[in-house]
Design goal:
heterodimer; A: about 210 residues; alpha/beta; five-stranded mixed β-barrel; two-stranded antiparallel ribbon; 6 helices; 9 strands; globular; B: about 280 residues; alpha+beta; five-stranded mixed beta sheet; four-stranded mixed beta sheet; about 40% helix
Chain lengths: ~210, ~280
């Protein structure tokens, strides 16, 4: 990985700037993001005009904890959910809505990476579970749609300031750090069991390492 | 006799501690991991520790996913709870959802309609147990979806070599990758029936220490070493620390079967436990 490059991003994101982001670099994001997870993807792709505009937007795979004080919503906690659950729906969402960046955790599959390459979109991974820290970058709620899906599944438009650290783990060239780690892990697994193969044949208490 | 009022107070306290108070042993283990990593892996471990410290000092949620509410309640010999325990815990969860607050996570499994209270449809779930101790014990575990989705069960043949089971567990780790927020605690249940194996795996994730059984301890160490040699690392971005710990629980099984269940518990390993005595004494563990 070497030394990681750190940069500041501001929405709306410029396509060229997004395409030039290097795999493994660290970014902090300021501006606006839309929370967008399982049920919002399903509904958005179900047809009809979206009541919000995702063109060039940043979506965030998260279900925030919100508190209502009178008429105003307050962000109690925000942090990424597992992005791989959106694998089946994301390629089409990226292409149809023109999403420019996705914030999540755990990474996404090859089909999503291919759509990201076509559309000029990057995947920014948060440190999962580090919500107490990440929430400090969430300033206020700018709007909410589809609350009938429940608070975690609704679409929240949030104002953020230096949200991060986020790691570029899928770039707009189709490179994925997740895929690299997975390939290497598979190779290592085969090596472990090849090395142990003789033991396995001879004894029931075979060592794997 | 433990009063309903005391029981409710302790249950509320456990919920709040589980979601806001990082466990000391977890912080220590993550700190040790940070010392073995560099680059992105190290940066992420430092961020995890920083965030957990913020949660502790500002009484903030460790993670926005406050899970589905699961309690384990065990009663010592001769002890009794003379009130509707399920009803009491349900009301505590409803209250905690408003006041802690917890995320409103519980939905109907088919309609996906959110109850808005984290209760109803069997939630909170309560596992009851009887022991020979002189105290009662209550544990609260918020089960988040990231770890929950990374659960697997395989029914092996009774003649399957141990190496096949080891391979299955390592393949699980490869498949899970960064999804359950590594460095996680891996719980493994071996034996029993299919449901018992899964319950053992889940229980193992919060056991906190290694089992006393020599053979099992050796297998736990061997699997931890194997998983950590895969290079998956913190959040799956590469590194040495993938499993903070591997914990195995076993149970007798049918001569014609061999269930193996795998469960993950994301790195903060959120849970809180208390002991209650008949004289009103309480100890938080």
């Amino acid at each position: 990985m070497g030394k990681s490059h750190i940069s500041e991003l501001h929405t709306p994101l410029d396509e060229d700037a997004v395409r030039s982001l290097a795999l493994g670099s660290i970014v902090y994001l300021s501006g606006e993001v839309f929370t967008f997870r399982d049920q919002a993807h399903k509904r958005a792709l179900g047809g009809g005009r979206l009541p919000f505009d995702l063109r060039g937007a940043v979506i965030f795979h998260t279900g925030p904890v919100m508190l209502k004080n009178g008429r105003n919503w307050k962000v109690v906690s925000v942090g990424a959910t597992t992005s791989s659950r959106m694998n089946a729906l994301e390629p089409e969402a990226i292409r149809r809505f023109g999403i420019r960046a996705i914030i999540g955790k755990g990474g996404m599959d090859a089909a999503t990476a291919a759509a990201m390459k076509d559309a000029g979109c990057v995947y920014l991974q948060t440190v999962g579970g580090a919500s107490a820290s990440l929430t400090k970058g969430a300033r206020k709620v700018l709007g909410v749609w589809w609350l009938d899906l429940g608070v975690p599944e609704a679409v929240w438009k949030l104002s953020v300031e230096r949200l991060g650290p986020l790691v570029v783990t899928i770039d707009a060239k189709g490179n994925s750090l997740h895929a690299k780690v997975e390939m290497s892990a598979k190779r290592r697994l085969e090596k472990i069991f090849k090395a142990a193969a003789n033991n396995i044949m001879c004894t029931s208490k075979a060592a794997i390492s | 006799m433990i009063t309903e009022e005391l029981f409710r107070q302790v249950a509320y306290e456990l919920i709040e501690r589980a979601v806001k108070q990082p466990r000391t042993e977890t912080m220590r283990a993550l700190g040790a991991c940070a010392g073995r990593e560099r680059g992105l892996a190290r940066m992420q471990l430092h961020e995890m520790l920083k965030s957990m410290k913020i949660a502790a000092s500002e009484q903030a949620l460790i993670c926005q996913d406050t899970g589905v509410p699961v309690f384990h309640v065990s009663l010592g010999r001769g002890m009794a709870l003379d009130f509707d325990v399920r009803q009491a815990l349900s009301e505590v969860v409803r209250d905690a959802t408003e006041r802690v607050p917890l995320r409103r996570n519980v939905v109907h499994p088919l309609s996906r309609k959110n109850s808005g209270t984290n209760t109803g449809m069997g939630m909170p779930h309560v596992f009851f147990d009887l022991t020979n101790d002189d105290f009662a014990e209550m544990t609260f575990v918020p089960r988040g979806c990231g770890s929950e989705n990374m659960s697997r069960l395989r029914m092996f043949m009774p003649t399957s070599p141990l190496a096949e089971i080891k391979r299955f567990i390592l393949e699980c780790a490869v498949e899970f990758a960064g999804n359950p927020c590594p460095p996680y605690t891996l719980g493994i249940g071996i034996g029993g029936t299919s449901d018992i194996a899964m319950a053992l795996a889940k229980k193992a994730t919060i056991r906190g220490r290694s089992s006393g059984d020599k053979r099992t301890v050796a297998l736990e160490r061997e699997l931890a070493k194997g998983i950590n040699s895969l290079g998956i690392g913190p959040m799956g971005l590469g590194g040495r620390c993938t499993a903070l710990a591997v914990r195995i629980e076993t149970a007798g099984t049918h001569t014609g079967t061999l269930p193996v269940a795998v469960a993950t518990q994301c790195y903060p390993n959120r849970h809180a436990k208390a002991r209650l005595w008949d004289n009103g004494k309480i100890a938080y563990l």
